[in-house]
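Cast an eye over this sequence plus tokens and explain the fold to me:
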Amino acid sequence: MISAGDRPEHLLNRALLLLAPAITIVVASEFIVVGLLPLVSQDLRIPLAKAGELAGWWAFSAAVAGPFVTLLASRMAPRVTLIATLLLFTLGNAVVAFTYDFNIMLAARAVQGAMLPAFVSVGASVVTRLAHPSEQGKKLARANIGFVLGVILALPASVVLAQGGAWRLPFIVLAVASLPMALLVALFFPRLTENKTAGIGGQLGLLRQPLFLAHLALSAMLFSGMFAAYTYLGAWIEQAFGLPGWLMALVLFLYGAAGLAGNTIAGRFADSAPVRATLATMLILVAAINLTALSGASLLLAVLPLAIWSISHTASVTLCQVRVTLAGKDAPSFAMTLNISVANLGIAIGTVGGGWVIDSQGIGAIGIAPIGFAIVALPLIMLIGRDATSRQPVPTAPGRT
């Protein structure tokens, strides 16, 4: 229950403090596997492509089942959904850590993938409900720092934790971390009793809005471009610089740390100019990826473009989440889950597209595929931007009523 003394800003701050670390754990559970696939392949004696299904089935489940799970979760109290998801993630990560049956691992990952969009989107609905309308984008960006941390830091964390081939340890850490987080949410997350979520019909109505669908298509293209390069960043660093495992993990960690600035920058423009900010970050990202590739074997030359790559990558993730949620403000929870679904679809497309270019042209061509996806995204940005401009109120001339 919410007491009379609980002001919305106090409730919002409390929710944000809990959402950021909780979302970090949940999102890291998806991306932690990326840096572990070679070790999983060796330990279970399966092809690398087969091990990659641990990532693929998660993404597929999030894209296909995620929206349906979110529709069901929207009828429950947000706090209940968050606690249940964290407990399921404890169980799922423990299953992956301790079982030797690969099919059971895949099933556990698929269940986790289906729950991820509901978890993140329910958190977004709480933020949009409690935040002042003029600051919803800024507050969503603050909550999204957990999503950013999960995406950016999972890869170096997996490299560090799996030193010596202990690929199960990262999953044990995530399983253990979920339990106290669930307890904190149970004790301190705001108990919102009113349900202001649109009905299922109202939420599905987003899919009949051409402009909203254009926002989703843009997110798919942007995530395709981002992960066409990011998926192979570790491989590029290893080949370009020949760093030992611990030093490569340090470079990846610093890369992720630089990206935190991108979330802050995105938050500054999320309410006032989300479309223009999306265009700027996309162009900067593509340029930074290609400048990094052109740095050759010089780590010194690569430092600055790598930092800019990380900042613009993170800003793009945040802007996609905020832009789509604001575009679907009548059903923000469902809007965000649809964005997460198309983002996972974009990750799959980008990974395949980037891998195809790298297989044919070499790892030095890591920046080519992002250029192609950016070219496809440009007309969508122009369409969305033109509509946003046309909706701005026309100033009334002095003296007229």
Notes: The CA atoms of residues 96 and 105 lie 5 Å apart.
